TrEMBL record:
It holds the Pfam family GAF_2. Gene3D superfamilies: 3.30.450.40, PAS domain (3.30.450.20). The keyword Coiled coil applies. This is GAF domain-containing protein.
Length: 431
């Protein structure tokens, strides 16, 4: 294991040597962009004759075309693209300079490259064209970076128009996989709210069984590349999964998925909170170069922007839902209060009407003459004086003598003394 300390924190390299770098984290985004564009490689060659055989060339040109081809004197017309051969032929034939852009050269060994060329005629002492002088600049890395930046801008536009998070992350992973010079498999894991577990976010090229197995892994020291990077809040670059102790619990799983290296970068919010991890897997053991680290930082920052925007939208939606629920509850309370008030008003009106009826009945009763004799004597009648007024719960009233009134009170449960002059039943009982 080796470490390379940056200005704001270390990057950990496991199973391989750390590549040189000027900074590791916290560096301005412009520096990462310059790193992605890289330094241009200038090539030069002096070609002879109409077959365009290399007479002299700088080491960069020899490396681009292939050392064996140059030494063997193979005419460039046999190994270069047809359009570029036509340009060389035209410059040799007319003596007029020409240019060609994005010329692809496939060397005998190594990776193909793209070049911008300027071709000028070579003349002898008599002015006769005897060859072509070729000056070029390799633009392979620049073209890749330009395409990556174009895709990056498209991702930012998706985030700005609030595209679904899964769509943004999946698109980001695919564009990196398609445009990276070397094969890479991208994975984004999202942190739970407590920061203790990582959930599947996007990994379009990793096997489903692998994504399912690591969905929900804990964050912690030695939990693979991603769990450790999330725990440390710093990049963890495992160059060889087969020998690294961080992968002891996942080595068999990685072997089944055909994974040999994993470089993981934590995705952090602006306040330093953990949002997730951005990982780049490789099929063969490999340590990252400066351009790989710059690429990881650029897109980890993009993922952070997308995830934070998603969290903000979620919080906004939750707040709006709570506000709507509170508004609906208040509306229900107002309607219930209005209903209770209406019912109270109805009861008050009914009570007022009943009181009016009672007063009217009392006035009617008061207007009737007081009977002279007891009205409770039954069929035989009673000639005793009517002294006491009684009534029942139905409102029927009668006057009677004390004897018959007492019998009525004892035998009829609902009867009560109604004579105000006597002070009611209590006064009568206590007489």
């Amino acid at each position: 294991m080796s470490r390379s300390a940056g200005r704001n924190g270390p990057i950990v390299f496991v199973g391989g040597e750390a590549p040189s770098m000027t900074a590791v984290s916290g560096r301005p985004a412009e520096e990462d962009v310059r790193e992605l564009f890289g330094q241009s490689v200038a090539v030069f060659a002096s070609l002879a004759g109409s077959a365009h055989v290399v007479e002299a060339a700088n080491p960069a040109f020899v490396a681009a075309v292939g050392e064996e081809r140059v030494r063997a004197g193979v005419p460039l017309g046999d190994v270069l693209p047809q359009d570029f051969r036509a340009l060389l032929d035209r410059v040799f034939r007319t003596g007029e300079p020409g240019t060609a852009r994005d010329v692809g050269i496939v060397p005998a060994t190594g990776s193909p490259g793209l070049f911008d060329f300027t071709c000028e005629p070579r003349r002898d002492g008599s002015g006769e064209v005897v060859g072509v002088r070729v000056i070029g600049v390799e633009v392979t890395q620049v073209k890749h970076a330009q395409r990556l930046m174009s895709e990056h801008r498209a991702l930012l536009e998706q985030i700005a128009r609030q595209a679904p998070l899964a769509e943004v992350l999946d698109g980001m992973a695919r564009c990196i996989e398609e445009l990276a010079p070397d094969e890479v498999l991208v994975s984004v894991l999202l942190a739970d709210a407590d920061g203790l577990h990582l959930r599947h976010g996007a990994a379009p090229s990793l096997p489903d069984f692998y994504n399912e197995a690591i969905d929900g892994i804990a964050t912690g020291e030695g939990v693979g590349s991603c769990g450790t990077a999330a725990h440390r809040r710093e990049p963890v670059m495992v160059a060889d999964i087969g020998t690294d102790p961080f992968w002891d619990d996942f080595r068999g799983l990685a072997g089944r998925a055909g994974l040999a290296a994993c470089w993981s970068t934590p995705i952090l919010a602006r306040d330093g909170g953990l949002l997730g991890t951005f990982a780049m897997y490789h099929r063969t053991p490999r340590a990252p170069q400066d351009t790989d680290l710059a690429l990881a930082r650029v897109f980890a920052g993009t993922a952070a922007l997308a995830i934070e925007r998603h969290h903000i939208e979620q919080a906004k939606a939750a707040a709006e839902a709570l506000a709507k629920a509170a508004h609906d509850e208040l509306a229900r309370a107002v309607r219930a209060e209005q209903k209770l008030r209406a019912e109270a008003e109805e009861r008050a009106a009914a009570a007022a009407e009943l009181n009016a009826q009672i007063r009217a009945a009392a006035a009617t009763q008061a207007a009737k003459p007081h009977p002279e004799h007891c009205q409770l004597g039954g069929a035989g009648g009673c000639t005793a004086a009517a002294e006491i007024k009684i009534a029942d719960s139905w409102g029927d009233a009668a006057w009677g003598c004390p004897t018959h009134v007492e019998e009525a009170i004892i035998n009829v449960r609902s009867v009560f003394i109604a004579s105000e002059e006597l002070g009611g039943l209590a006064a009568y009982v206590n007489r």
